[in-house]
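**User:** I keep going back and forth on a fold encoding question. It is easy to fool oneself when nobody else works the same problem. Could you pick a protein and write out its sequence and tokenised fold? Could you put it straight underneath, so I can go through it closely?

**Assistant:**
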Amino acid sequence: MSWVGIKKAINRAGTQVMLKTGQIEQTVDKEYEYQEKRYKTMESTSIKLQKNLRSYLESLRILTNSQINIAESLNSFYGTNTDFPKDANGDEKYKFLVQEYYHTVKQLNDSAIDNLENPYNQTVLNPVARFNSYYTEINEVIKKRNNKLLDYDAMKNKVKKLIEHPSSTDVAQYDKKLSSANEELKDLETKYIEVNNQLIEELPKLINLRISYFDPSFESFVKIQLRFFNENYHILNKLQSKLDAQTKQDYMEGKLEDRIDNVLKKMRDLDITGGLS
């Protein structure tokens, strides 16, 4: 920062203190304040939306990874016992189903997430991030407007003091000083009004554009969700139908309750159980 920039920053800091303590009359623009408040609300909301959308994709990864972890644990659990009933092909029935479940959820993780990530980034996450990237430029204009306002209020206060306390000794010098201050005040007022009006005009346009901009991303988000869960349902339903068929068959043949009773009896016979009742 140059010396001029440092000097301006110091002067503006002093002006802010005087404004807060009521030593300087502050210029208030209700219309601008209303539009800025709307803009700030939109900014915080869309940044939060971007964060949540990023978390959503990560949550799906966590979900599918958790399914794989459970499938691996089940696979190891069933794989440690060799005393399972055999089917017609001589395979361990339950171990086969668990292994099939493992391969099913691994397929979901490898295909569904990979196929989802690219369109999700392109049509949902990236457009939101691109929209949010404009806040940096807009906030710079708002900062510029606030600085111009501080300069304007400070000079307005200076002119006011000159008028309230005119010099009685050197009238010519006083008139020259007052004229110079008025010219500077007019110049600062013009610069402030220019950027202030620009924001009053353009902030509502930006806010109103948010709907038409986000609509396609919202539609894509819903479709991607539908696709992901439909693929999950389609793949898992194949396995579920096998599980249901086996369960119904065991139930119809009276094997389901007998199997549970048999396991409970064996557990009661174990010394370490202390005799379950």
The domain at 31-257 is CATH 1.20.1270.60 (Substrate Binding Domain Of Dnak; Chain:A; Domain 2).
